[in-house]
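tool=predict chain=A
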Amino acid sequence: MARPDRSNPRLRNMASSSQMGSPQRAGPPQRPIPGGVPLTGGIAADIRALNSSILLITQKMKYIVRNEKILGRNLIVLNKKIKSIEDKAALNAVSPDSSGASSAEVQLLQQKVALLEAQIDDLRTRAAFKEELKELKYIIDSINPLEFATLSQVRELVDKRIEEKLKKEEKKKN
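tool=predict ok
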């Protein structure tokens, strides 16, 4: 049977109203997890926030890699310019007046190259690579934060157990 096109809002409304026997639920949607316990809004929101943070980090990584490539190309161009200027200075017997201008230009280009190299090194030290992000995602998935309890939940459980023990001891005494 062909699936109806639901891109049209009217058809979408008709499709949702044609779902017979499906009760409407109030509150946040709950999805089952492998343990059979539905996700509540708070934990699901935290997981979605973590997922979106990871996606933002990967997007920033793409920008960093692109900028690193651009800086690398600029370095190559500047190195070629420096080399050509140094070759010209070495080949030509230049008067002291004109050699002062070319050496100043060479020094300026060398400073620019040093600055670009420093920026590239900084980007490399601050950036996380795609493999590291995959490893981080694997660790988060393997830890499964849904299995952890908060401190207040643990305290409540301990208080309940203590109350139960006290009630049992009172029943035994009576």
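Residues 158 and 164 are 10 Å apart (CA to CA). Residues 49-92+106-169 form one domain.
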